[in-house]
Amino acid sequence: MDWSWDFVAQIMPALTQGLLVTVEITLVSSVVALVLGLLFALAKMSPVGSVRRVAIIATEGIRRTPLLVQLYFLFYVLPDLGILLSPFTAGVIGLGLHYATYTSEVYRAGINNVPVGQWEAARACNLTTRQTWTEIILPQAIPPMIPPLGNYVIAMFKETPILSAITVMDLMGEALAQANFNYRYLEPITLVAAGFLLVSLISAAIIKLLENHLNLRAA
Amino acid sequence: MGLHIAPDRSAEAPIIEFREVGKSYGVFKVLDQLSFSVKPGEHLALIGPSGSGKTTILRILMTLETVTSGNVFINGVSLNREQKNGRDIPASEAHLRKMRADIGMVFQHFNLFPHKTALQNVALAPVLTGRMSKAEAKDRAIQLLDKVGLANKADEYPSRLSGGQKQRVAIARALALQPKIMLLDEITSALDPELVEEVLNVITDLRNETDMTMLLVTHEMGFAKDFADRVLFFEQGKIVEDGPPSELFHSPHHERTKSFLRKVIAAGQRV
């Protein structure tokens, strides 16, 4: 089979549209994963035993089942219970929730890595709990979290093709639609790979820059 | 013709009072029914073998630990309990913050904030606790750094300071809130030997120039003797001997104290 630039030109608008959806869904899911992950982490470190237990059971349960099964549940099972989600919303919730269980571990490790002496010094300085978090603990805990959190965002981005299983028209969804319609897979799937590679490389570079910036500030 | 009355410390109300304080971790008793009091302006050295409860006393005063039983009073106010609507309840965070305002602490491992410069480390607390404006706190921090001989290091981060310099910044930080009680927890134990003196000199100046009540936990018997006007010897969470340094170091009453000092001297320390 020969590579056809005409066919590339023909499917490019649809694929570009799909790539935008992929990036959009990654960004929104990342916000969900980062915010929810922090909440999970705080719950897992809660002084209240019951809060801690519920958080651990929930995060372990989500982390130890496949994302695809969770997506099917959100998109195909919930309607039976009267909850109808659009493909996009189901995708964001599924991806965000799944990765929140991973980011929560990054947060927890980052916070636990701040030596206990820092908490004690903050107390000796008579800071409030809130000031201790915002002035002392988080500024030390966050910079080392940036690379692993960034890697999870890139991992989420690379995992978005799975959303075509619940009819999200992302890059993969559009490519499959074009391929199935025209009976040509070479160009669409190659372009999907190229699109992912391009965006991943750019994201990795941005994370590296951010990391350097934070390291410089902390040094 | 006036009647001159020498200041009689024994008549003064204690600034710190431990009343039958117990502290346990599980079955391990760190403090055992401990009672003692400290008068304003006293300089106390707490000595004794590791694990005898000396550091725990400082940590309880800084509210880093809670007591298992008994009561601790600062200026007659309970540190660990408070009265609310006529009921006696465990101290709330608000009560603890009020009590902490009079207490400063210097730690064995400095615990400087690594993401703040020396100046920021010192100026942080007065600003965040609302005691001073940023400009006032900065002026005060520069004064304090100057006092500990580090005015030229104001803009350095802790990672660029030696151990002795870090500890002097930590002392300046503890002074920034103008505490009435200063807790010094083995402040030279983590230092290289050649850096110990610069830290002890700062403490000696503080001792001579301020009227702070100071509690020093130390393994440096020579310094304890020079610093303290009263020494408490601890063993297994109890005070074995309590007296002026001349007595405790040179003619201890208790066999336990004697044997502890013998071991210390055998390890090469001057007493």
State the largest interface.
A-B, 19 and 26 residues
Largest sheet of chain B: 6 strands, mixed
N-end to C-end Cα span of chain B: 45 Å
Shape of chain A: flat
Unreliable parts of chain A: none
Describe this structure in words.
The complex is a heterodimer of chains A (219) and B (271). Chain A is mainly alpha-helical and 219 residues long. Chain A has one domain: MetI-like (MetI-like fold), CATH 1.10.3720.10. Chain A has 8 helices and no strands. Chain A is flat, with a radius of gyration of 21 Å. The model of chain A has no long low-confidence stretch (mean pLDDT 92). Chain B is α/β, with parallel strands linked by helices and 271 residues long. Chain B has 2 domains: 174 residues, P-loop containing nucleotide triphosphate hydrolases (Rossmann fold, 3-Layer(aba) Sandwich); 67 residues, no CATH class. Chain B has 9 helices and 12 strands. In chain B, a hairpin with a 2-residue loop joins strand 6 and strand 7. The model of chain B has no long low-confidence stretch (mean pLDDT 92). At the A-B interface, helix 5 and helix 6 of A face helix 2, strand 8 and helix 3 of B.
Describe the structure concisely for a colleague.
Chain A is built from eight helices and no strands.
Itemize the secondary structure elements and their pairings:
The complex is a heterodimer of chains A (219) and B (271).
Chain A: H1 5-44, H2 49-63, H3 67-77, H4 87-112, H5 116-124, H6 129-159, H7 171-182, H8 186-218
Chain B: E1 16-25, E2 28-38, E3 43-47, H1 54-61, E4 69-74, E5 77-78, E6 81-84, E7 87-90, H2 93-100, E8 103-106, H3 118-128, H4 134-147, H5 163-175, E9 181-185, H6 193-209, E10 213-217, H7 221-227, E11 230-235, E12 238-243, H8 245-250, H9 255-266
